């Protein structure tokens, strides 16, 4: 059986201050905070999830905020750029909105598409691209109307320490189709309508250093637990070394580092974020897995409070 991922499930990054992270992704980009939990491996650190109205696979960006963590450096072995898809005709709205918040933007061209390029408060690189594919988001917040709201991922730009080996993994392990070359990148497509376009820089660049402002890993979609088990065998048969299945509460995950140094995850679409909160109340409470509930008081005391708030446009 040939396995083919539908595309990106989620992207996880390191950032600094948690409230500034919320202000940027919810307050300025208008995404919904769909889950407020902790890093299961470091419970003194938040794990914040942002996406569309339900946090559907293909829309989810997640963060580990740490105000005392080191600053990272974007480079080889990482996702270099996180790309969001917006409805056709929306780039002007976003250019004006970002300018109103004094966020510098540049217009870039890559393989016959135009991208609005900027960085978040920690230096994480983001691009917006207009795409017909993918359903409109139903979430509106902070002055972002649904007709211009971010749909989810357009894709990502990968920086590899060994582009030929990463290309091999994308095609022969992940099942992507190579569809174009240009401007120093190779382009690959998956079958989904969000998170389905991957651009791989074709020349190596200096190695990245993990820390605030860098992506920790990129996760690809598996339909369910059964398919994920197939993925584990499939990945191993291609010479990689996947981890055992990890319970992440809202999906199950396996991880492996491809030969260009990028950490890949394969995550299940179910069960999703409504497993422990009502759909209309996602992200409102700190949710803990059962094994951390006895320690809730200590965990909450160690986390700085955060709130979803509208961000005033800066004057002058």
Features:
eight-stranded mixed β-sheet, EC 1.13.11.-, alpha+beta, globular, Extradiol_RC_dioxygenase, 316 residues, 16% helix, 2,3-Dihydroxybiphenyl 1,2-Dioxygenase, domain 1, dioxygenase, Ring-cleaving dioxygenase MhqO
CATH topology type: 2,3-Dihydroxybiphenyl 1,2-Dioxygenase, domain 1
Secondary-structure content class: alpha+beta
Order of secondary-structure elements = EHEEEEHEEEEHEEEEHEEEH
Tell me what portion of residues adopts beta-strand conformation: 25-35%
* Total beta strands: 16
- Number of alpha- plus pi-helical segments: 5
Report the sheet with the most strands, covering strand number, pairing sense and barrel closure: 8 strands, mixed
Domain VOC: 7-131, 152-269
Keywords: Dioxygenase, Oxidoreductase
EC number: 1.13.11.-
Organism: Paenibacillus pseudetheri
Characterization of the model:
The chain is of the alpha+beta class. It has a single domain (8-302), classed as Roll (2,3-Dihydroxybiphenyl 1,2-Dioxygenase, domain 1). Helices cover 16% and strands 34% of the residues. It has helices spanning 18-28, 91-100, 163-173, 225-237, 296-302, and strands spanning 8-15, 32-39, 42-51, 60-65, 78-86, 106-110, 113-119, 125-130, 152-159, 177-182, 185-189, 197-201, 214-222, 246-247, 252-257, 263-268. The protein has an eight-stranded mixed beta sheet. The chain starts with 7 loop residues before the first strand and ends in a 14-residue tail after the last helix. The relative contact order is 0.22. The model has no long low-confidence stretch (mean pLDDT 97).
